[in-house]
Amino acid sequence: MNRKGFDLDWITIFLYMMLAIVGWSTVFAVSYFSYDDALPFLSTAHGKQLIFICVAMVVAVLILFLDLRFIEGISYLLYGLSIFLLLLVFLVGKRVNGALAWLPIFGFSFQPAEVAKIATALALARFMSSIGFSLNNARSLGIAIGIVILPALIVILQNDTGSALVFFSLLIVFYREGLNWLIPALIILLAALAVVTLWLGKPIWICLGLLTLAGISFAFSFNKRSWGRDMMIYLIVTGIMSGYVFSVDFIVDKLPTHQQNRIFVLFNPTIDPQGVGYNVIQSKIAIGSGGLTGKGYKQGEYTKSKFVPMQETDFIYCTVGEELGWLGSSFVLMLFFALIWRIKIMAENSKTKFSRIYGYGIISILFFHILVNVGMTVGLMPVIGIPLPFFSYGGSSFLSFTILIFLMVNLYSFKSSVLGSKL
Amino acid sequence: MDNFIHRGNIIIGLIFLIFMVFVIRLFSIQVLSDEYARKAESYIIRTKSVVPPRGNIYNRKGEIYVSNRPMFSLTLTPAELYIPPEDTAVLLDFIDMTWPAFDSLLKARSKSRAESLKESVLLRHIEPGEYGAMQEKLWDFSGLGFQANNRRNYQYAVGAHILGYVSEVNKRELRDSGGRYEPGDLIGKAGIERSLDTILRGVVGKKKVQKDKYSREVGEYAGGKFDIDPVKGDDILLGVDTDLQALGEELMEMKKGSIVAIEPRSGEILAFISAPTYKPDQLTGKELNSNWKALQKDSLYPLFNRPLMAEYPPGSIFKIPLALAALNEGVITKDTYYRCGGGFWRNKGKPGCRLHYHPLKLKDAIKLSCNSYFAATYMDFLDSPIYNDMYKGFETWHRYMSVMGVGKRLNVDMPYEKPGQLPAASMYDNEKYWYGRNRWSATTVISNAIGQGELLMTPLQMANLSALVANRGTYVSPHFLRASRSSRNEAWEMIPQETISTQINRQHFEDVIIAMEEGVEAGTGRRAYLEGFRVAGKTGTVQNPHGEDHSVFIGFAPVENPQIAIAVVIENAGGGGRWAAPTAGILMEQYLTQKVEQKKWEYQRIKQARFKY
Q1: Which residues of A touch B221 (CB under 8 A)?
Q2: What is the interface pTM, i.e. ipTM, of the complex?
Q3: Which chain A residues touch B212 with a CB distance below 8 Å?
């Protein structure tokens, strides 16, 4: 243990503590009511959350005692275990908010998907850092993708779309490790096309637009010798994209109504003001009413009055927005960014490929949660139920992010250790 | 070994970019737009009006005339309603409804979830006694509540037409008020409650209550920081002598007519009687609407404010202003003689007159109310060589009458005042309805001389005329409000009044007043005579084509220092000397001596008198 000691990355720990404190304070602000004083502390949401945080911190300290090789060693085992737990949900799981994603143990419920996130990040790191792995090798790439896709598919079957999407965020790791940039670029392009299609709702016009773009592009790059081949390529690409545009329209049309609504509400919350649109409208009102400096801590009467659904969990960022205003909500975002940045620095400075890849795994998961959750509350993202790290009320979420972060802190502490290095 | 180290920076750069998008988005909805803040406020705050008690009204003696007393309303919140099954009858009994009626009301008020969560009034005007009993019985009901409010309390149950009444503001008043009133506010509907509403109502307080997402109230908002405290309405001091008012109403029982008494020096209205009348507390509380409807339907129009709105030909009392105008213009002097002989000889005996000695001069003409004398005066006025043109003469007469308050509103502090009618030359010139230019002369309009013809005056104008004579040529517009004071301030703030002068020579008034005094001592106004006081007066018997003549009297006392000027109109009673003059005498005695002693017999006689309508 002495060899580590002061090699711990205190900046990360500091940022983690800050987020934990601000996060718990927010839960407290939401759930505390003076007339509840008579209630036992531990029966309130903020009381329970405090216990979860304490447990998580004990676990964090325990993680710091683990050895790098042990962590790497158990990666696959943990991955297998988490797949098993995910499957177990189908047998003994509990349904919460429509998603069959919870396992009851010792009177608590926890989400195996949370374990699966950690395990998948570790397993992916181990596989991609193994000798002989190459992204240019189709088999290697296939297995790596499989590691990510498998838990995602199971989670989708559990009707927990939000958690499933988190796994796809690990694409960032592939990009960092040298995946051809065209692939993520293509994915972003297709995503953008899908958004535009749904937004405008007129696939034929988008196809005409694409054709025009292709025509302009073709005219500018006109080459006497290869114009025939060039035109074929342009036509084929435009054709594929048009087909994609039409299929997006078609598929969305076939989606269950509640999922369709979640998408369309993004463009126009008023189409369903009492349903999914309600969340978005109320959430924007709560945040928007905060102004520059907010109404003051615990003074957020709008969120206090429970106008916004899922106030303590998915929509907790509303309370930050209402009570702390623009300054406070931006500060929270900056804390998150600082943490991500710090993890990136740790990842890049890691002596091992394993810890670097794992670091990017954390960045992907953390970033995706913030992107979707904050994006949803400010009306820039569809309503997808995933928690805001360290803020949303709930033990499994807080614990899993703690483990994610402290595994990284642990791995990073080996950077100066010769023995710890695999190089 | 790692060719892709730059990609870490690209990733972190893109992440930063997305965070910045969020920060900008937050800035736009939180700082740049106030739409969300406004919406949030409208969703969580309900602003309730807190209606303060209206100001008290004090009488001339400074005693409380009208105050307030607490009342309660029973409210219903349909969504929260729970009636213990065995107690349904108790509730229905209290609200005096059958179950089907209550059930349909309940359904009507819970059409939507939001609506059924709203508290609305179920039963108004619950007296404190009933409230106690109700509260006891309804303790285990839920969804029912009580609201405290006030109703007017009358210490002297007189002067309903002075006071008017208070009721909930209606749609038209809401629209016309320009936002000063809100639904449910109280507003004065008539009388001084209406005209002085802005003084009496005070400042309606605002209480901000926080609601939850079901629109239920959960407590005060921000600790009451943004509440506006209600301010009780200002108290007002009236010039009304409630004893005099009560006596006047008593005398006018079972009669139609008006009495207006004014303190000449100040223009303060001492008594203001409109008969038939009603008790002011008939138009308060639970019975307001039903009583109002009943009064409205009454064939005698008890809601009609006669002193302000009934326009009568003034009759012989109009000889006084004519005499004053003629004296001031030099058309006649106090020593001018005219013949009578039972009629106006210059116009084929019209108007007619009673038999009395003649020729006679002004003093005797007023004392005996000689029609011929004033017909001659009027004719000589219009055709006077001073003007050399009948039109000019007529206009001069018109100007004098107008200066003395005939044919125009006196701007009393009460709504719906009628102007009466003073015919103008242009009116007679109208070919379609009247005579046409140069097609009429003094003889055509000779009835104006004796207050008949096209002349109309309200009792208020008659009283003002009386006050004007008492003051020897000046008057203060009649008014009720003497002073006001805010609920915090102990001192009364007197309302300054403007004295209006007629510019008529004071000596002419003295001449006319001597004649009026003789009229009371030995002329037509004998029954207004008071031992120990110099009373001046003039009777009028107004011809009424629809029935018995109206009995009219104007007068004041004491002559040397007038304390009270009075006008009495009793419809269909006959001669002014027989009914109106003694009524005025009784009231003057009451006002000057605080008792009715000399006029006891007249008091009994008039009280018992009934006239055919």
Answers
A1: 301
A2: 0.90
A3: 305-306
